[in-house]
Give the backbone structure.
Amino acid sequence: MTTATDSQALLLRLLDPATRAHPYPIYHEIRAHGPLQLPEMNLVVFSSAEHCDEVLRHPASASDRAKSTAAQRRYAELAEQFPQEEAEPPSFLFLDPPDHTRLRRLVSKAFAPKVVRALEPEIDSLVDALLDAAGEPLDVVADLAYPLPVAVICRLLGVPVEDEPEFGRASAILAKALDPVFTFTGQAPESFDEMMAAGLWLREYLRDLIRKRRADPGDDLMSALISVEESGDQLTEAEIVSTCNLLLIAGHETTVNLIANAALAMLRHPQQWGALAADPSRASAVVEETLRYDPPVQLVSRIAAEDMTVGGVAVPRGDVMALLIAAANHDPAAVAQPDRFDPDREAIRHLGFGRGPHFCLGAPLARLEGTVALAKLTARFPHARLAAEPTYKPNLTLRGLASLSVATE
Ligand code: HEM
């Protein structure tokens, strides 16, 4: 029987940036304990493939933080601290039906596989230009994995890429805000004030841009959402801000990790690098195996909208259910030899894009960017090797490399 104290010690190890480079042994340890129950924190942590899958599909699993008992306590404290702050609507990642369904539908067309496929020639040229400009040693993160998805999402949303130094900084701070510091410790993160300031800055930036696009619409998603807003009562300006905020951060902080994590896995398995360099059709298997083996989003969470039982564990209404996707993807009950990076495995099953009603909307785009970038990177530099030990960003939820230095000659 794992006590709440043991459980919390395991979760603190996971949060510790010192374990960022090698979290998988901790995930194995956590999964071996079964679901971790921390009733005083209104928290249950699931880490097996079966349990995570069940929670993601369960009709009583909610995403709206306002339904969480622990968050309600926290909001009450915050309302005392910041009495005049007006609550902005959350993005649809954190909403339930009917608002989730309505807002997701409004943007889903822009990310449909057919629409995304039409972007391939542009993504091809972007990757070529980035690789042409890269120096020696090449930093896979700074030279390719970061600028590619940023350019694509800016172009789709109609956000000027020249403003990237500013909103890139805000986006990085907000990505860190997704770490479950409050959920796992009951304490606000140290950088809470900085996160609030970055959130307010990004909203103001987007509001300003919406004003400009309203006067001078373009061929972009923000202008399309403005025209929907103006044509009736389907969404509000505050919802356009939240939606663009979500897409901008998702575009900045996830695909970068897919491309860099895949490159690192192949550099550590050089026969995989060489095989992809020789045969670009292997890229999609490399992408899927990376989403399983080293997923860019390591955990998601849900709230029990009613009393639930998952894997024999009672989850009271209002409790947060943290789902360790990265642990589930390495569950030996679901995957043979889970710690082996093997794009040739027979069926690659993973929760890297989530599952159920919140399944990643950007999956076709991320897959396309990943396959093009990795096929071209390996073909251009077939004999690449690690030039230095890679470094990691401090983030747990959106875990990824800060730099990946590669010798190409
Ligand atoms: C490799 C890159 C990516 C990974 C691993 C990833 C992963 C995920 C995951 C795990 C979720 C589910 C969250 C949950 O269930 O709570 C999600 C949702 C989402 N993703 Fe991605 N994502 C990636 C790229 C993108 C991109 C490029 C975009 C768009 C620009 C995007 C947009 C979204 C949106 C809008 C949602 C919310 C869907 C909803 O709530 O209905 N993602 N993503």
